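Input set for joint prediction.
Command: fold jointly, output tokens.
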Amino acid sequence: EAGVAQSPRYKIIEKRQSVAFWCNPISGHATLYWYQQILGQGPKLLIQFQNNGVVDDSQLPKDRFSAERLKGVDSTLKIQPAKLEDSAVYLCASSQDRGGLSFFGQGTRLTVV
Amino acid sequence: AQKVTQAQTEISVVEKEDVTLDCVYETRDTTYYLFWYKQPPSGELVFLIRRNSFDEQNEISGRYSWNFQKSTSSFNFTITASQVVDSAVYFCALSEAGRGGADGLTFGKGTHLIIQP
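tokens >
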């Protein structure tokens, strides 16, 4: 069974530029999450989708971050404009059951300079 | 609000020693799930175990064991006879089940485990 796919693996941008990350969850997983992991810290939930609807975006900085999951499968996370403090690994995870059991992708490492 | 505390930032032991990673959690929900994930240097988070709040049975899986105690809000993880391949960052996490389907994980800061040969 294929795992969670993310691209790109690495991205370097200048502050105030925009960037987008893509995630393809495990086939059949209705729930998709985006997390931000700053160096030396645990991942922090940004947004949770159930199919193509948002379940929880309480920790998403909505002034600059947006995410969508149009057909209930793939998802994109966008940052516009990026700030230096957005430098982090962005992790996508998917789940097929209630209770948060999530399988993670390898992440996208973003560096904002 | 939920919170997970891993007080040990880094632990270094010699191979074959036993090591215990501590995790303390806070939640107001009566139904919740606790997790341990491993993050090796490659960066991908690997699921190790999930326990629900109604099941306090301790669990052993090979060299790994978990001790869940609701009375002290702790969910500790022990590796017996550690090996160099166990070197990684280990995260404890909590998911609350009673929030209208919102079950994203709250992670601790992680414990960096170093196993020296």
